[in-house]
Structure formats: C-alpha cells, structure tokens
Amino acid sequence: MTELIRKFIDVRDDVELKGLLWSIAYGFLIMSSYYVLRAVRDEIGAADQRNLQLLWTAVFFVMLIAVPLYSWAASKWSRGVFVPLANRFFIACLVAFWLCLVLLPESARPWIDRVFYVWTSVFALFVVSVFWGFMADCFSNEQGKRLFATIAVGSSIGAMLGSTITAALATLVPVFALLLIACVPLEAASWCALVLHRRFATGDVKTEGEAAKAIQGDAWSGMKAVFASRYLMGIAAFIAIMTFISTVLYFQQSALIYDAIADRGERRALLARMDWVVNFLTIIFQVYLTARIVKWLGVGLTLFLVPAAMTAGFVIFGLYPTLAVLIVLQVVYRAGRYGLTKPAREMLWTVLGREEKYKAKPFLDAAVYRGGDLASAWIYRGLEVIGLSIAAISLVAAPVAGIWALLAVRLGRQEKELANAQGENS
Question: Per-domain residue ranges for the chain?
Fold first, then answer.
C-alpha cells in the first residue's frame, strides 16, 4: 500500500506518510459533517433571500465574539485540547438545535432556521480554519507544497459523502435527522486531531516540543498581528475580494433557484447535487493537477488561475444571465476555488509562526471573511436598489475579479521571499 501511494504522492518517509493519512482522515470527517448541513443552510438562504444581508450581519457580529474566545482558548491550552474542544462545542450546538426543532412549536421554525443559518456559517469557517491552521502547524512549507493538495482530497471526498447523504435523504427525512447525523463525523474528527497532536510535532524542526505548549499571546494578539504585517494584510485583502465574488454568485444563485423551483425539498436536493459535482471536480484537481501546478507555476500563479477565470466568467454570465449558465459558473468557481485556490492559499501560512497560524488565521478566515460577506451583501443589495439587474451586477464584478488576480501574483512573490528567508535562517 505504501509503495502504491508513493507512485502518486511525493511522500519521503513513513512518519510523513502516517501524518498524511491521519490528516486526510481528519479533513474527510470535518467536511462530511459540514456538507450534510450545507444544503440545509443554503436552502434556508434561498427561502429567506430578502433577509440574507441581515443574516450575514448577524454572522459577522457573532464572529467578532467567537474569534477572541477561540484565541483565548489557544492561549490557555495546547492544540491537543483546544482543537477537539472547538469541534465538541459545535456538536453540543447541533444537539441543541435538534432539541429546539423537536420540542418547540412550528411557529418558531422561521427563527430557528435563521439562527441555524447564522450558526452554520460560523461553523463552516471556524472548523475549516482550525483544521488548516493545524495542518500548517504539523507540516513545513516544503511539505505543504507536496502534501496539502493530497490532504485536501480527503476533505473533498468527505464533502461528496456529506452531499450524497443530504441529496438522498433531503426529501425523505425531517431536517432534524440530518443534524444528528452530522455529529458523528465531527466527533470522529476530534479523535483524529488528538492522534496527530500526540504523534506529530510542529512542521518546523526548530520548534520541537512546542506542540505540547499553549500558543503565546492573548485573545487579541491574532488581530494585532494582521495589522502589523503587510503579508497578512495582503492575505486579508485576498480573502475580502474572494468573499465579494462568492457573495455575488451566492445571491444570484439564491434568486434564480428560488424563482425556478418552488418545492423546498427539491431545492435542497439540487443544491446537494451541485455540491457533489463540485467536489468530484475538486478531487480531480487535487489528485492530478494541483501539486503539479504549484510545482510548475509556484504558489502565486496557482492562486491567479481562478480569479482570471472568474473575470471571464462574469462577463459571459453578464451576457447570458440564465440559471444554467450560473450553475456552470458556480460549479467551475467552487471546484477551482477548493481544488486550486484553497490548497495554495493554505501554503501561504506555512512560512509563518504558530501564533499567526492559530490566532491570525482564524481572525482572517472567520472575522475578515464574514466581514467581507457582510460588506458584499450590502453592496449587492445597494446595486439592486439603484436598479442594476443580475447581468449588470456580473459585469460590475468582472473587474473586481481582475484586481483579485493581480493580488494573487503579489502574494506569491511575498511567500517565496519569506520561504527563502526561512531557509537561509534554518
């Protein structure tokens, strides 16, 4: 089995192989859990589309509270404690939602849906951010460039499983059952995190023994680190523009699907099938292309590809604003974003210290991401208010995607400089 794996993946020794396999399992379980819930959340968004900007405002303020609390936990306990603790907190929340759906009257359902939408949006970013921060801590910059795309394959297969479960059950079982199903892989992921913590040190050999220690700093140190670093500010800008692109597509998707499909179960099933196709294509990227593209082009040009494609894609959708074109554009965008952009973006963190990985990263991936969502949601509604159609908004988004592409190239140069400096100092 080891020899078979090495034919496809550049694994250097057995220790690295074991770390890779446990990491794949961890990512698989995290994304299985999330994608069981994702279509449920997106269907709620489609049903309550006129209030999306309000829901995203709530998500942003919840993030402002959650990120300092998580940073505080990281300052108190080692990663072997606070990473599983974060996962189990979300399990407790899912059980609480299940109880609300079972025990409260039907008249409370709209507000339960809205709170669940906000919670799932927080959950989605937080558990994924914690996972990739953990990966950046376990693997070095050089290892990340070889292995992160493969680790992401596990996440994509897990997402396909979660989407398959939801697509199969969406019209057959109440949403209550899906919440409990999502708890199972989330708990298993906590055990994978514990194994990785106990068996694998940090990626930088100079910090041997650091894995058992709490992260330095306080609850606000991650936020302060971002504003003190041009590199981190560049990542923040990259995420902010990405959220604008995602928000435009998401609002357009919610509007067109709501208009085209009346039944909520059928909408949920369509969204789950879209998720399945996205993750199938993502796996093709991650298995066959991503690591090779990073090796050939470097991190910066790999980050450049999806923004460049979206610049062209928005122009096409602006000219042909149909649901079929939007579905294709959304699938291409998300497959490229998860298959190429996501692994390459996580490589940007391997050249930074542990405090940035565990504290600045959640701030950027959570608070800045949702802050970008919030601003983008209100911008989108503003463009609608002044009379722009879906097609016109797409044409407005095209040059923004072009700026995103230029920023990707700049970040790639900075990552290369930091990696070279790290190599010289080691």
Answer: 2-421
Residues 6+ apart with CB under 8 A from 356: 222, 225, 229, 232, 349
| pLDDT tens by residue, 234-271 | 999 999 999 999 999 988 888 888 777 767 677 777 87
How would you write the chain as a 3-class SS string?
CHHHHHHHCCCCCHHHHHHHHHHHHHHHHHHHHHHHHHHHHHHHHHHCHHHHHHHHHHHHHHHHHHHHHHHHHHHHCCHHHHHHHHHHHHHHHHHHHHHHHHHCCHHHHHHHHHHHHHHHHHHHHHHHHHHHHHHHHHCCHHHHHHHHHHHHHHHHHHHHHHHHHHHHHCCCCCHHHHHHHHHHHHHHHHHHHHHHHHHCCCCCHHHCCHHHCCCCCCCCHHHHHHHCCHHHHHHHHHHHHHHHHHHHHHHHHHHHHHHHCCCHHHHHHHHHHHHHHHHHHHHHHHHHHHHHHHHHHHHHHHHHHHHHHHHHHHHHHHHCCCHHHHHHHHHHHHHHHHHHHHHHHHHHHHHCCHHHHHHHHHHHHHHHHHHHHHHHHHHHHHHHHCCCCHHHHHHHHHHHHHHHHHHHHHHHHHHHHHHHHHHHHC
Length of the chain: 426
CA angle 264, 265, 266 (to 5 degrees): 90
* Tokens describing residue 390: 């879906």
The phi and psi torsions of 309 (rounded to 5 degrees) equal -65, -35
CATH class for the domain made up of 2-421: mainly alpha
Burial (Cβ within 10 Å: 0-12, 13-18, ≥19) of residue 47: middle
* pLDDT of 205: 44
Cβ neighbors of 161 (< 8 A, separation 6 or more) are 28, 32, 35
The CA-based angle 190-195-197, given to 5 degrees, is: 95
**Amino acid (one-letter) located at 361:** K
The amino acid that residue 100 corresponds to is: C
Measured between alpha carbons, how far is 210 from 70 in angstroms, rounded to an integer? Answer: 19
Which one-letter amino acid corresponds to residue 194? L
SS3 140: coil
Q: pTM for the whole thing?
A: 0.72
pLDDT per position as a tens digit, 198-238:
877 655 444 455 555 556 655 566 677 788 889 999 999 99
Q: Indicate left, alpha or beta for 113 from its phi (over 0: left) and psi (-120 to 50: alpha).
A: alpha
> What span, in angstroms and rounded, lies between the C-alpha atoms of 334 and 195?
31
